[in-house]
Each structure stands twice: as structure tokens, then as C-alpha cells.
Amino acid sequence: MMPLKNYLSTFFLFLCVFVMNTGASSVDQYSFAFRSSVVYGSQTNDLTIYMSTDFNGGSTIEDISQSNWKDITAMATLSSGSPFVGSGNLDFTPFVEQGKALFIAFKYSAPATPKPTQRMWRIQSMAFKHNRMPVNLSDWLFINHKDNDENVGWENNSKGIQYRSRMTKKKTESWAVVQILLPDTKPIISGRTVSFEPPAKSADKAYVDKNKSSSDAGVTQEYLKKIMYDSYLKNGPNPGVMQQLGNMEVLEKTKQDGYERWHVKYKVDTDEFSYAYILLPLNIPAGAKLPLMLCPHPTYIFGKNRVVNLYDEPIKDRTDSLKRLSGHYGLDLVQRGFVVFAPDRAGYGERRLLSNKGFKENMAAFSGKMRERYPKFGLNGKAVWDLQVGLNLMLTYDFVDQEHVGIIGHSLGAWDAILLSALDDRVKAAVINSGGMVAYLPELWSDDQTALRVYLDSPSKQSLTKNVNIMLMLNASRSVFYLFSLRDPFYKGQPQLIEGYTTIYDYYKTNNPKKQADISYLLHKDGHTFYPTAKAAAYTWLEERLMTK
């Protein structure tokens, strides 16, 4: 048995250690950590990390400039390649001031270059801790310079945030700002996320309880459409303008093998023209009405020419041959008995403003000119508007069946297809190939609809790929056919339609007036293409839905 003297000595030693440890913990410790990865491009010194205690929460670069920001980049270890690298623990103890808000920002900035060398940064596993306990973060606030190209900037992904340069050559500046939700400080950036991988079940419950709607009414299709209208069309021309645009002017009619090609010109605004090709099967019987296919083109400087297989130069090489093969779906469809409408997108074909420049420069130039009149109108909304004008005019022809209208697109054209079909009920069937990719967010499809309501009411959280979730919901009453390849270079491994297909299929069954889901999905092996096997499946699918028996 240990002598009493030894017991007392041991107890005294324990008491001293306890007091020392307690005293040490009385000094609050704050730390921040994250993991980073960088891919593509070659520019250096493009990512900077800042902290601030006086940011006003505004959404412009001017708001950023009016605040004091301390560069803390040197405190962190950043990745130099695609593997994710831990930042180490950044000591934030000196930056925390009692009662003052605390913000952390990731700034991407890069100079203009003649080649697309800007990079894609991914930031995830962000954790801010107070005495080793997680502290919640606000939602992310993304702020882009007004001169950035459309959709170039920071965005949310499934595990954090990422900067998407989208191969821009322009000078860019983009900020991702988050508030650390410290006790006794006022939330300045709305919303809340949990710091670093919380237990999913308890976090979901807290999220639902906090944001539960006071109304039991579900989110309606009308409300979904209003949100998408506000996102893409609200800031463009007044819809009443469509009644003032007049008819199409046929510039030329040319007979081809089995069809006739019309070159047409028409107004898409009071002082702006667009151009298109209309393809008609020969010898349409008197009184016959044929299904109409809208065929927005893929990325190609001469726009609509690719869709109708019209080129001034011979095939250059195998790559050029494959691109041509993927693009002439308009020609294929008129040979199958459809009327085809193939317009130029803004900045392409006969709508280029810079005849000696590429498609990126022309898109930027067109966007700049358009925003002189419509400062908040984007090219995606413009594409929808122009297609609607074209559809209005096509439906005036007596050989068009107004009840059997479809749209098909590859790559860039696929984005136009999913956008228009979501916003225009006259479209009954949509084929989307190698584009229109959805950043699948399972929480938006929940029967609870809490996360859906929050998303719809939070424009700062929305992005084009995330909005495809909403566009798919809006297409539930019609026929949709997605074609995609996991070998597509634009596929980054994030949750896609393949992960959400069962849930989306069930949603279509519930929300289709016929209670029958008509959404098909074809995965092929051929990358970012629209090769004959995939096209044949798409064309047969369209014939089954749009060709009258």
C-alpha cells in the first residue's frame, strides 16, 4: 500500500498540472485550415488569401475596395497540382477582436493573355476552430469584376468552392468571401454552413428545423419558371417588343438533294437582326403539317453552317472531320422529314462583330455591346430570347405542326436546348447531347423542399449548372433525352445525371400530368461528340414522339 505521504505528493502534482492546463486554455486559440487543388493553365501567383474585420457584406468590387484586407497567403501551403494539399493550421488568434465580424476571402486574379492559360482552383474541407471546436461559416459570397466573361468566377461545388476560368483570355478578378460566425458578432453574410464535415443526419435535421417553411404548399412549376425567368430573361427586352418585330425575310432559296434550304433574316429586337437557315423536305403535300426541330449550333465560329453541313473549305484533318460529323444534325433531321430551324447564336456566324477574331472575342464583344442597352442581360438569356422569337415566326408557316415542336443541341447547342425547353411550353421534346450538364444536388429534389426553397430564394447560390436541376424539374411534363459520355473532357467527376437519375425519374412520374416519366439517358464512350450511334438513337426517339402516325 502506498504511504499517505506519497498519496499527498501525487495529488499535489496532479493539482498543479490541472491548474497549469486550465490556465493555459484560458487564452483562446483560433485556427483556419483547408485543402486546395489547382488544375489546367499555367499562370502563377493567381490565388491570394485575405482576412478582414470591416467588410460591409456588399456584392460589388467597390464594396471589396472600401474594406481593409490583410494578405495572409504566406501563412498557407497551397497545392501546385491536381492532388489536394492541406494548408496547415493558420493561426487566426491575432485577428480575432471581441465583437468584431471576421471574414476570409480567396481572391483569384490573372492578367489577360493571348492563350487560355488561366487556372482552376478548388478549395474544400474548410474548418475554422475555436479552442479546437468547429465554428460555423456563412454561405459563400461570390463577387466578380464587371468586366469578367460570363460565368467566369467562383462557384460552389459538392465539397467546397472552385474557380472556373472557362478558358477566358481576359483579365479577371473574382472574390469568394465567407464570414466566420463567431459568438457575439452580427451575421453580415446571410445563410449558414457547418465548418468541416458535420454528422450528416444531425446537420440535416438542424437545417430543416431552422429553415422550415410556415406554409405546407409545395413549390409550384409556375414559381420555378418565375425564378428561371428572372435569372435569364427578366433583364432583357420587354416581351411586348416581340409583337413589333415583323416577319422573316427570305434572302435565298436553294434546292439540295431531297430538301430546300432557305437563308432568312429577321429582327430579334427593334434594331437588331438575326440570321438562320430553314430546311424543308421537298414536295410537302398540300395541307400537310410537319414537326419542327429547333437546332441551335455547337461552338463554331460560323454558327448555323455546322448544323446544316455548309463549309467553304474542304475537311482539314480527322479532328475537323469528327467535329463536322457531330454537328450536322439539322441536315440529318430534314432528311428524316422534319422542318429544321437553325439560327446563329449571338456573336456567331452572320452576327459576329469582329470578323477576323475567334468565337470568344466575338462573344465578349457582343455581350459588351448588348449590355450598353441591357446592363444585366447575359448571353444565355439572349439565346433563349432569340430562339423564342424564331419559334414565334416559324409557327406562322402553315406547313409547321404547332403541337409537335422539338429542340436538339450538341455542346453549346445542348445548353440552349435545356434552357429553352425549360422556359417555353411549346417545346414538347428536347435532346441534349454533351452539354446542359447538371450539377446534381440531391437536396433540391427532396420531398421536404426546404433546401429547394432556400436555393430559389438565394440568387448568390445559383449557377448555370446548378440551375439545370430546376430546368429538369420544369421539363417534367415533356419528353427529355440526355446523351453523355463519362469520357467527355468537360466531365469533372462531380455528381451528374447518372447519380440522380432514379430520383429525377420518380419526380417526372409524379409531376407529369399523365403520371408517366419520359426522360431517357444514354451513356456512350465517345467523349465530347455526337457520333452516328448516338445520333441514330436520338433521331429514332424524336420520331417516336413528334412524327404523327
TrEMBL record:
What keywords does the record list, in alphabetical order?
Signal
Tell me which positions the record assigns to the signal sequence. 1-24
Does the keyword field hold Translocase?
no
Q: Which residues form the DUF5017 domain?
A: 29-129
- The record places domain Dienelactone hydrolase at 333-435
Alphabetical list of Pfam families matching this protein? DLH, DUF5017
InterPro entries per record? AB_hydrolase_fold, Dienelactn_hydro, DUF5017, FrsA_esterase
Q: What is this protein called?
A: DUF5017 domain-containing protein
Q: What is the scientific name of the source organism?
A: Sphingobacterium chuzhouense
